[in-house]
Specification:
Elements (H helix, E strand, L loop, with lengths): L1 E7 L12 H8 L3 E7 L12 E2 L9 E2 L1 H12 L11 E12 L2 H10 L2 E6 L7 H6 L3 E4 L9 H12 L11 H4 L17 E2 L2 E2 L9 H19 L6
Parallel strand pairs: 1-2, 1-6, 5-6, 5-7
Antiparallel strand pairs: 3-4, 8-9
Length: about 230
């Protein structure tokens, strides 16, 4: 079972998120366990303060290191990344991280038994969390979110669907977009004619070799048009 622990100041954000689709089925099958933890429970002051002003001045607030260190220590049993099990990954979600890709998702699904996801907020997180705790610093794209919670959902969904047994058809992950540095091929269903648009004739022939060839070529054309950077 893959264990996913989320550290957040908004645990209720995840209350119903994983009760749908593939993640729900994976949870029911015992393939993954997802738990959202309130960062405030690891504070030691009576007001449960998790943020403070940045040294050096500037706008906004920064998440304090103490509760995050305490949370990671409780969830992993270790106080720094040098002590983690080889299958433990502590992921800091931030716009400063490397961009999340299908390859990163595959790495996590194949090599991790526990993923701790730290959701950033405000102006960021004390850098000592990066220096001592995070095995991975990940961004889901070149834009800024209000917090790491939506990014945590994206990462978990992408990783869980790659777990053996999570999908009804295991070949789905082989043929979909980004699996071979290209986008997926176009898909069609009934009716064959709609609003003056037709399904390509080759898909109606039943010739599996010709269909496979068409799909490869169509996927390449789509990649060249929409994401030529993948072909480099």
């Amino acid at each position: 079972m893959l264990r996913c622990d989320i550290i957040t100041i908004f645990p209720e954000f995840f209350r119903a998120t994983f009760d749908y689709g593939i993640v729900r089925r994976a949870r029911a099958a015992g393939l993954v366990k997802t738990t959202a933890h309130d960062l405030r429970k690891w504070t030691s002051d009576k007001h449960h303060i998790v943020d403070d002003r940045p040294f050096g001045g500037g706008e906004g607030m920064v998440l304090k290191p103490e509760p995050i260190f305490a949370g990671v220590r409780e969830l992993t049993g270790c106080g720094n990344r040098e002590e983690y099990s080889p299958q433990t990954r502590v992921v800091l979600l931030s716009p400063q991280g490397r961009v999340f890709t299908q390859e990163v998702a595959q790495d996590l699904s194949q090599n991790a038994s526990q993923i701790v996801l730290i959701c950033g907020r405000y102006e960021g997180i004390d850098e000592r969390v990066v220096e001592a705790l995070a095995t991975d610093e990940i961004s889901i794209g070149d834009y800024v979110l209000s917090g790491g919670e939506p990014a945590a959902i994206v990462v978990i969904d992408a990783v869980v669907r790659l777990l053996p047994g999570a999908l009804g058809n295991e070949s789905s992950t082989v043929n979909e977009s980004f699996s071979e540095r290209r986008l997926g091929h176009p898909q069609y269903t009934r009716p064959t004619e709609f609003s003056g648009l037709s399904v390509p004739d080759v898909l109606l022939t039943g010739n599996h070799a010709e269909i496979a060839r068409w799909r490869r070529e169509a996927a390449l054309r789509k990649t060249e048009r929409n994401r030529p950077d993948l072909l480099k």
